[in-house]
């Protein structure tokens, strides 16, 4: 069954909470012209509607109690290949199960995110796949109150006070996997280049943790953080090679890596002759550019597919307890990492 049989707040609930009649509450919410309501009472009705999570239905009342076989997926951006891979995985599964999937791009804007969700709730979609900003926890709480099925992708809300379905991978584990690979190839002066924004803190901190775990000298394994622009990436590249004399770097995000590789070409830095590189993320260019870049494949298509399955199972009443699923990443080895162990072996012969 869909969520329409759940105890969603009604117009009567709003009227009771606001201490007025159903007719007056209806006039306020529908903004009927020619119906005088004092500003004080209008504010009380709107406040009651907000607190209860009430939204007027724009679909015919005959739809009540029926699911529409429509789900919505919200992602921050459509030009990011990572999110598109998630979309493809989700859409394929939804289509197989006879569901139409609506796709919305929030552009990392919380107000845009909220606007889409409010509108889609009013349109009575059956459920949501949310790859949204951290502020999306507020809207997830509203969905929880309304009993509308949803699954969080990519960024779980760890501080949440209520259980919810989610599918994610460990970005921290992906960074440590990249670091371990370089260590196994004999590198000991390993730098990290990452995005300074808060959403990537988990990966940035994981590098420091991995350095300590492997017993490396932290002074010889610096972290360089910046924004995803050419100026910052040029600075970070020079710091890694010239100042820190790193033999290898872990690049913590594939979009940072695009700018870094562009700067390497401009500065005539050769991979892996001058520096070895592992990228966290595996977009198409990592296989095609230069020598081919060793990368940590993040399970975004599987994340989308599994999230869609979890959502549709819940919509159709096949799920019970809510769960958080963590997927594993995979290292794809290419030619961007020099094997210092092999070099040392040859030098000793």
Quick take:
By secondary structure, this protein is an alpha/beta fold.
What does this structure look like?
By secondary structure, the chain is an alpha/beta fold. Helices cover about 45% and strands about 15% of the residues. It has helices at about 10-20, 20-30, 40-50, 80-95, 110-120, 135-145, 170-185, 200-215, 230-245, 255-265, 285-290, 300-315, 340-345, and strands spanning about 70-75, 100-105, 125-130, 150-155, 165-170, 190-195, 225, 250, 275-280, 295, 325, 330. Strands 2-1-3-4-5-11 form a 6-stranded parallel sheet, with helices on both faces. α11 (about 285-290) links the parallel β9 and β10. α1 packs across α2 (about 20-30), α4 packs parallel to α12 and α7 (about 170-185) packs parallel to α8 (about 200-215). The longest helix has 16 residues, at about 80-95. It is elongated and about 85 Å long. Residues about 1-5 and about 60-65 have low confidence and may be disordered.
């Amino acid at each position: 069954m869909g969520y329409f049989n759940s105890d969603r707040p009604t117009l009567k609930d709003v009227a009771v909470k606001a201490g007025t009649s159903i007719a007056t509450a209806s006039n306020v919410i529908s903004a009927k012209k020619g119906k005088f309501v004092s500003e004080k009472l209008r504010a009380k009705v709107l406040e009651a509607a907000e607190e209860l999570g009430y939204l007027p239905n724009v679909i015919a009342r005959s739809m009540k109690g029926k699911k529409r076989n429509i789900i919505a997926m919200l992602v921050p951006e459509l030009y990011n290949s990572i999110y598109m891979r998630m979309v493809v995985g989700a859409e394929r599964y939804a289509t197989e199960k006879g569901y139409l999937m609506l796709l919305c791009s929030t552009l990392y804007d919380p107000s845009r995110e909220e606007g889409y969700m409010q509108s889609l709730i009013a349109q009575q979609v059956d459920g949501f796949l949310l790859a949204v900003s951290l502020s999306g926890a507020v809207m997830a709480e509203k969905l929880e109150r309304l009993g509308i099925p949803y699954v969080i992708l990519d960024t779980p809300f760890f501080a949440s006070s209520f259980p919810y379905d989610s599918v994610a991978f460990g970005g921290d584990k992906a960074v440590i996997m990249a670091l371990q690979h370089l260590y196994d190839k004999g590198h000991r002066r390993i730098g990290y280049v990452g995005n300074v924004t808060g959403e990537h803190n988990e990966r940035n901190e994981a590098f420091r943790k991995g350095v300590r775990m492997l017993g490396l000298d932290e002074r010889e394994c610096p972290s360089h953080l910046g924004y995803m622009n050419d100026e910052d990436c040029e600075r970070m590249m020079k710091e890694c090679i010239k100042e820190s004399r790193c033999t290898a770097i872990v690049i913590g995000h594939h979009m940072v890596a695009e700018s870094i590789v562009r700067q390497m070409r401009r500065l005539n830095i050769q991979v892996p002759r001058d520096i070895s590189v592992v990228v966290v993320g595996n977009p198409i260019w990592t296989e095609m550019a230069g020598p081919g870049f060793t990368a940590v494949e993040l399970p975004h298509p599987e994340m989308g597919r599994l999230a869609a399955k979890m959502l549709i199972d819940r919509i159709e009443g096949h799920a019970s307890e809510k769960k958080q699923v963590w997927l594993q990443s995979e290292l794809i080895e290419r030619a961007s990492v020099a094997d210092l162990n092999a070099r040392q072996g040859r030098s000793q012969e």
